[in-house]
Amino acid sequence: MFKKLQNILRIIGMSFEIEMRQNLTDGFVLFGIVIQPLIVAFMALWMLKDKGPDYAIYVVVGSAMTGLWTTLLFNGGNSITGERWTGTLESLVGSPSSLRVVVFGKVLANVTQSLLSMIGCYILISLVMGYPLSLSNPLLFTASVVFTVFAFVCFGVIIASLFILIPDFQRLQNTLEFPVYILCGFLFPIALLPGWTTPLSYILSPYWAARALHGAAQGTLDTNQILISMGLLVLFSVMYLSVSGILYRIVLRKARVDGTLNTTG
Amino acid sequence: MNAIEVKDLKRQFKTTIGIIKRKTKTIVAVDGISFDIQNGELFGLLGPNGAGKTTTIKMLTTLLIPTSGSARIMNFDVVRDADKIRPKIGFIFGGERGLYWRLSGFDNLRYFASLYYVDSESAKKKIPELIELVGLQGREKEKVEGYSRGMRQRLHIARALLHDPEILFLDEPTMGLDPVGARNLRMTIRNLQSAKKTILLTTHYMFEADALCERIAVINKGKIVALDTPDKLKRAVQDLSIVEIEVFGIPPEYIEKIRAMKFVDNVAVESRDQRQVLLVQTSKGPSAISELVEALNGLRLGKIVTREPTLEDAYVRLVGGA
Questions:
Q1: Which of A21, A95, A257 sits opposite B86 (nearest CB)?
Q2: Nearest beta carbon to residue A257 from set B65, B97, B102
Q3: What pLDDT score was predicted for residue B159?
Q4: Contacts from A234-241 at CB under 8 Å and sequence distance 24+?
Q5: Which of B68, B117, B124, B171 to mutate to probe the A interface, most A CBs <10 Å?
Q6: Rounded distance, CA B107 to CA A88, Å?
Q7: Chain A contacts of B159, Cβ < 8 Å?
Q8: Chain B within 8 Å of A241 (Cβ-Cβ)?
Q9: CA–CA distance, B195 with B146 (Å, rounded to integer)
Q10: A–B CB contacts, 8 A cutoff, strictly below
């Protein structure tokens, strides 16, 4: 059991390292990680310079989450497509390691990279503009960030399976981007949406992440409410991970039947 | 116990034709093949492009599910027991794909070592050994994108050997290697055979199959058309002689004319620089030369020789010429 856990952690660690190193040598990805967040952070804070700090932190947290989701959807998804095109998807599937664990490490790398970059950019730009951002509950906010990373990674593992199942899933990537922004309440409260969408929001772990982060940043939720959001965030993430086990078995079997693990068949 | 048992294995692919009126077409890549490979045997799978060699290997390495039939690796079923098979096998597919080009060769091996559960201490020892074995020492810290085709192929081989697998699937492993590299690799394969590894090798090079394989299956259009030792396969064409005629530019109609001659069993054409060599299999021996020369009247001819058949000639006869 201990040996198995050790192997899983090692594979996550190596996949994380390999994905990080690959991203750092890809100009397109580097632009998305370093330059784009700088521009977004500058524009967001410039527009908010006359507003109160409470409102500013709401937009900063919200826009950072949208950036995180976009990175997850595009870099995470494209990395699976890339593996297929370079022929390494077969090597990964043909190895004794679980592809789900490998994908977990890859998505973790993308989310971490994006998060660190955005935190760095917002701090840098706010300092340059002399517009410090304040957090209502820094401790709970930090804890929420950690759980948010976990939630996004678990969600990303599910999303990545679609890229394995459908070789040209890239075509549908854009259609997934905005619904998640909206349903998860990254930039405005879900109370503004029609009532029938609320259950959909509740089953998406990023919604609970957004709720915990916004609540801890602005102080609009009390400690208990933030802890409940974090609990639900973890609960849904663990559920995603459990479902992903079955999902990957189905998806990989289908890919082996259809011969879609490689672009050359 | 056999290392590999294949019974009536079949694999079809579906493809669509047309844009508005789309029709589904079924392509049979492997059509009911059966063979067994014993423990420690070096078995060759020969066939022209598109014959079904790679599809067969992909089914045996658990990357494709057969349409029907069965295949067992060390008594494990390739569909149901894929998880048990994967730690015991190593595979390489010909070509340059399947590696992380933006990483160094060393990092590629580190990553695959972890995927194959090679513990860190063993990996630290094993990776430099394999780098030396495949002759990449001194270049291992460079990115793979800067490697030559042969170097990438050698890196593939090192990757396949990382976890010391009991069975190796080598799909055209010497493709793209220079003659010295190919010879070194053949020596490596021989050493692996001496170490009692079971090897399934596909290659286009007949001399390679002849020199390495204990038994060979010739596959054509998804079916096995012959399965025997190289010597016995050669014996199947011993009634024939091979007349080699150098020609400087031969139109297709001349080839068809020769193919239609009663005493000609098969014809193949090999290109060598500016000339072609017509390989005519005939039971008539040297006495066929005069009639062949007459049929080629009007063309510029070079050297003409008659020789004994080789494994390549047996292969040409089995798969039906060029």
A1: A95
A2: B65
A3: 94
A4: A234/A147, A234/A150, A234/A151, A236/A151, A236/A154, A236/A203, A236/A204, A236/A205, A236/A208, A237/A147, A237/A150, A237/A151, A237/A154, A237/A155, A237/A205, A238/A154, A240/A154, A240/A155, A240/A157, A240/A158, A240/A205, A241/A154, A241/A157
A5: B117
A6: 14
A7: 91
A8: no
A9: 33
A10: 81
Query: Can you spell out the DSSP letters for B74-107?
Result: TTEETTTTHHHHGGGEEEE-SSS-SS-TTSBHHH
Angle (CA) A7-A8-A14 rounded to 5° is: 85
Q: In angstroms, what CA-CA distances link B272 with B178, B250, B278?
A: 18, 13, 11
Tell me the angle at which helices A53-71 and A205-218 cross, rounded to the nearest 10 degrees.
150
Give this prediction's pTM: 0.84
Burial A147-167, CB ≥16 within 10 A → b, else e: bbbbbbbbbbbbbbbbbbbeb
Q: What is the C-alpha separation between A17 and A112, in angstroms, rounded?
A: 11
DSSP-derived 3-state class of residue B15: strand
Please report, for residues A37, A254, B15, B17, B67, the alpha-carbon distance to residue B23 in angstroms, rounded to integers and kept in the order given. Answer: 47, 22, 8, 5, 20
Higher pLDDT, B77 or B175: B77
Which runs of E-coded beta strand occur in A67-110? none
Bridge partners of residue B71, in order along the sequence: B6
The packing angle between helices A99-128 and A36-47, to 10°, is: 50
The CA-based angle B189-B194-B197, given to 5 degrees, is 70
Q: What is the reported pLDDT for A92?
A: 94
Kindly give, in sequence order, each residue whose CB lies less than 8 Å from that of residue B130, ignoring residues fewer than 6 positions away: B109, B158, B161, B162
CA A115 to chain centroid, in Å, comes to 9
What's the Cα-to-Cα distance from A142 to each of A60, A69, A118, A217, B81, rounded to whole Å?
15, 18, 14, 10, 44
Q: The dihedral of CA B96, B99, B105, B106: what is its sign? A: negative
What is the three-class DSSP state of A3?
helix
Name the 3-class secondary structure at B114.
helix
Residue B307 Cα distances to B210, B286, B313, angstroms: 17, 9, 11
pLDDT(B198) > 60 = yes
Sequence-separated (6 or more) residues with CB below 8 Å from residue A100: A157, A244, A245, A248
Instruction: Give the model confidence (pLDDT) of A10-48 as tens digits.
Output: 999 999 999 998 888 877 777 777 777 778 777 777 777
Per the DSSP assignment, residues forming a β-bridge with B247 are: B276, B301
Structure tokens at A223: 């400690």
CB contact A88 to B (< 8 Å): yes
Crossing angle (nearest 10°) for helices B105-115 and B120-133: 130
- Write the pLDDT tens digit of every residue in B267-289: 888 887 778 888 888 888 888 88
> Which residue type sits at A162?
L
- Which tokens belong to A81? 């497509």
Give the integer Cα–Cα distance in Å for A68 and A114.
6
Return the structure tokens found at B92.
């390489």
Residue reference for tokens 């492009």: B49
Return the DSSP state at B143.
B
Pick from A59-68, B51-60, B73-82: least confident? A59-68
The answer for residues whose C-beta is within 8 angstroms of residue A39's C-beta and 6 or more apart is none
Both tokens of B203, joined, read 């290659």
